[in-house]
Specification:
It contains no helices and 11 strands. The relative contact order is 0.32.
């Protein structure tokens, strides 16, 4: 089992920045990758970014590439999502997820944190 707790959401004006954190606990050594997803009201959940273990290779959705950066601090078992140049359309609940050995998809999820970007 892997437990994930997000933090760092909030209200920000367009053009501003936020940094989300996702702290992992439990069987963190079994992780193959971690990702950030978001879901806006009335919309499907969408992929935002992911980072792999042990490679550290990151992948971004086209809508956030160049504005968002995913990173990790293995000493703290924490993954970050630095969000710059935020737009109102980035407003959503952001959730982190972990994919572990033996799973073909993200199998552990956090509770989510709200990000609201005002125009």
């Amino acid at each position: 089992q892997v437990q994930l707790v997000e933090s760092g959401g909030g209200l920000v004006q367009a053009g501003g920045s936020l940094r989300l954190s996702c702290a992992a606990s439990g069987r963190t050594s079994s992780r193959l990758g971690m990702g950030w997803f978001r879901q806006a009201p009335g919309k499907e959940r969408e992929f935002v970014a992911r980072i792999g273990w042990p490679s550290g290779i990151s992948v971004y959705a086209p809508s956030v590439k160049g504005r968002f950066t995913i990173s990790r601090d293995d000493s703290k078992n924490t993954v970050y999502l630095q969000m710059n140049s935020l737009k109102p359309e980035d407003t959503a609940v952001y959730s982190c997820a972990a994919m572990t050995v033996g799973s073909a998809s993200y199998n552990f999820w956090g509770q989510g944190t709200q990000v609201t970007v005002s125009s």
